[in-house]
Amino acid sequence: KIKVKAYLPITQYKGPTQQQRIVSLSLRSATRDLTHLPNVAPSEFEEILIKHHTNPQAWFMGQYANFVLRFNESALLKINKIESKFNMDYGTIAGIHVRRTDKYIEVPPYKLEEYMKWIDLWYNAEEYNVQTINSKLNLKTTKQNIK
Predict the structure, then answer these.
(1) Rg of the chain, C-alpha, whole Å
(2) Which of 94, 125, 135, 147 is the most exposed place for a label (fewest CB within 10 A)?
(3) DSSP SS3 for 105
(4) Does the keyword Glycosyltransferase apply (predicted)?
(5) pTM for this one?
């Protein structure tokens, strides 16, 4: 048997002219020492993407992730069933995920006030746009006591 490795690790990426395929990223922290990261938007769409988006690579990667992580019919039925049990007539619900236990290598911890500053900014814009008075905050965290 011949073993073929289709993807190189990101640490072997040399620059935009490199032709080998690179898809695997172990951790974002492994990319910190790279001077540049590979572009992920196909060159065929570059011209039109640049006209319509300030960061075509980010847009394309989002589209790609959305496609890869799309739900199948069975999952959608389950999600819709669960979603139907929620009272969504309450108003606007903002959600934040305060991560303290699994991202300490990649991202420094932020104080809860920093998160709330952005939630306030978002709610102010939301109230301006749709005049929503009712609002809720959904806070998820891996720690019991956060500050």
Answers:
(1) 21
(2) 147
(3) coil
(4) yes
(5) 0.41
Q: Which helix (H) or strand (E) covers residue 96, if one does?
A: strand 92-98
Number of CB atoms found within 10 A of residue 77's CB: 11
- Confidence bin at 1 (pLDDT 50/70/90): very low
Q: Quote the CA–CA distance of 99 and 101 in Å, as a whole number.
A: 6
| Residue 57 tokens, joined | 């690579």
CA angle 122, 53, 9 (to 5 degrees): 95
DSSP 136: E
- Taking residues 138-147, what's their average pLDDT? 81
Q: Are 119 and 94 in contact (CB under 8 A)?
A: yes
Three-state DSSP at 135 gives strand
Residue 62's nearest CA partner among 73, 49, 44, 48 is: 49
Which two three-digit tokens encode residue 85? 């049990």
Distance, CA of 31 to CA of 140 (rounded, Å): 27
